[in-house]
Design goal:
By secondary structure, the chain is an all-alpha fold. It has five helices and no strands. The N and C termini lie far apart (83 Å).
Length: 100
């Protein structure tokens, strides 16, 4: 009678800090299509090479407002989606449009 050999399972406990870091990385790698933005907003961002939350966070408001059909209302929509993910902005001041 042969014994079945199974690999020993190894469980590694992660610290709370490591768990938070992994969750944050997962959020940063989310597609902007998954964060509740309007399709028009997503299309505007993707046309400029902004595909993930990380890309979005690395884009300045000034850069975003230079995108065609992307104005102050759209920027507020983006801010709202990012806030739902736990990101906050330094200033709650209303954004100025690129033409101002």
């Amino acid at each position: 009678m042969e014994k079945e050999l199974r690999p020993a399972s190894t469980c590694v406990r992660l610290s709370e800090k490591e768990i938070r870091q992994r969750k944050r990385q997962e959020i940063l790698d989310l597609s902007i299509a998954q964060i509740g933005l309007l399709v028009r907003t997503t299309n505007c961002l993707e046309s400029e090479g902004i595909f993930t939350v990380r890309d979005l966070l690395n884009s300045s408001p000034e850069r975003l407002l230079k995108i065609s059909n992307f104005g102050a209302k759209t920027l507020l929509e983006v801010y709202g989606a990012l806030e739902k993910l736990g990101f906050t902005r330094e200033s709650k001041q209303e954004p100025k449009s690129a033409s101002e």
